[in-house]
Amino acid sequence: MIIINTTYHVSKVVDKDWLNWVNKIYVPKVISTGILLNPRLMRVFVEKEENAEVYALQFEVENFEKLEYWSDHFSKELKTEMKDIFAERVLGFTTVM
Which residues of 61-74 are buried (b: 16+ CB within 10 A; e: fewer)? Predict the structure, then answer.
């Protein structure tokens, strides 16, 4: 099993809106593909972020082939949607574990 973790730095200006969008829109869309499963959204406690909250959003995926399929067919659209809504107020980076 592979874990895909995306860490998001979310401006406090949009924090509540982003959390609502992630829980009600983003995660259900990801889960509906049947590729990334078992979502976990966690707050990351850091001292240096005065104007932002930090979150880790994790999903499990069975293997690298499915992860590549996800990346090629679904990931870009959802990233674009997030950027269109939240612009530079939400920044993220992904780690595969």
Answer: beeeebbeebeeeb
Whole-prediction pTM: 0.92
Are 7 and 15 a contacting pair, CB within 8 Å?
A: no
Query: Could you give the residue ranges of the DSSP H alpha helices within 4-60?
Result: 15-21, 27-32
Q: What is the pLDDT of residues 5-17, one digit of tens each?
A: 999 999 999 999 9
Other C-beta atoms within 10 Å of 83: how many?
Answer: 14
Q: Which of 66, 82, 85, 71 is nearest to 27 (CA)?
A: 82
What are the residues facing 20 on neighbouring strands? none
- C-alpha 56/C-alpha 96 separation (Å) is 12
